[in-house]
Amino acid sequence: MLVCVPLWLAAPAHAAAVRILALGDSLTAGYGLPHEQGFTTILQQAIDKAGLDAQVLDAGVSGDTSTGALARLDWALGDNPDAAIVELGGNDGLRGQPPAQMEHNIAAILDHLQARHIPVLLSGMVAPPNMGAEYGHAFAAVFEHLSHRPGLLYDPFFLQGVATHEDLEQADHIHPDAAGVRIIVARLMPQVRALIAEARRK
Is 172 tagged catalytic? Predict the structure, then answer.
């Protein structure tokens, strides 16, 4: 006997796009670059090119420290993201903020996100060399500690492959130029894929 199944039962519902919160400082915000060349725009283009159904939510604020990002986290979460990329620490290092304070702030951000079952990709940072070896070791230890959190996706250094390469930096030798942004995005994409997959499983 032929049984007719209503279309709404036979066809799986289309899953909504995964909303990825990009929480960070000027590196996330695309400081010094036209909007179309900034990190979140290039990341969105890479996601679209890969055929991944995800939307990047730009929550980068130039000049932000980990303290500032923690203070605005609830506001940033107003868009109800399904996943998050956290890129912080550069301004903490430039301002010589205590590494212990930075660890407290970033850990609190991760706690808040994970309490809401939001999978996270944490991208680390390196202290400016002029801060000295002792500060640099303490700064690096923060991200080493945080990297061991269960369920966390971790990228050791956001500017890997770009920092100290003058042909990939803006004139300030801090921020990536357009080519540098593309290198960062290409390097991060395997983990972004994993982040999207994890969000789909939630």
Answer: yes
How many domains does the chain divide into?
1
- Other beta carbons within 10 Å of 160: 15
User: Does some domain include residue 159?
Assistant: yes
CATH code for the domain of 19? 3.40.50.1110
Q: Please indicate whether residue 123 is annotated as part of the active site.
A: no
Residue 11 has pLDDT above 70, yes or no: no
Active-site residue 66, yes or no? no
Kindly report whether the global pTM for this prediction surpasses the value 0.85. Answer: yes
